[in-house]
Amino acid sequence: MSFTSGPIQVDEGLRKYMLSVFNKMFLALCLTGSIAFICGSNPNIVSAMQGGLSTVLVFATLGLVIYLSSRIDRISPDTAQSLFWLYAALIGASISPILAMYTGESVVSAFFTSAAFFGGLSLYGYTTSRDLTGVGSFMLTGLIVVILSSFVNAFFLKNSLLSTGLSALSVIIFCGLTMYDVQKIKNYYNATYGDEVIAKFSIIGALALYLDFLNLFLALLRFLGNKK
Q1: What angle do CA 143, 94, 199 make, to 5 degrees?
Q2: Does any domain span residue 19?
Q3: Which residues pair with 227 in a beta bridge?
């Protein structure tokens, strides 16, 4: 694929780039969902996850995403994409005990609600001429507050009302981050970068949107879902 100068060619290149980002994100979500369903349907696997394996996978996925983000300029697009698929599969296994806690109706409802939010917010982030950098910075600050508060609540306070409030706040935060990340990913595109660089940008962009969608879904599930 080659990119040439001129507004029409650049727009076409940008369209292909953004489609690549969203396609990769969608396939990663399908992989995560499939692995989560398989693991969640097996009581032995769920028991192992609840027994500590899930914590191990959380650290493994954290290491993967740090490695992928920091080494993206030194590895090939094929390697980066393989690591992305591995990350999505490990996330599916790690969240399977969470999904197993909720009714099927709650999981489906949270997914489609997330998809509706994500689709509308992505469209806004892509089309708006407003600079969303300030929104992104504000939401990232809020995310840090939510993470710290969730840690304190999980290990010390154990307050269900606070947990519900943090879930609601997480929904707002990841809605804002979705808009910001789509605009940021769009702005990454430059036709002069070449195929390899653009392919790597599409993987990093897909990873960012994957995390936005996944966390939005989990926040909605915790906020609105009915446990078994």
Answers
A1: 70
A2: yes
A3: 102
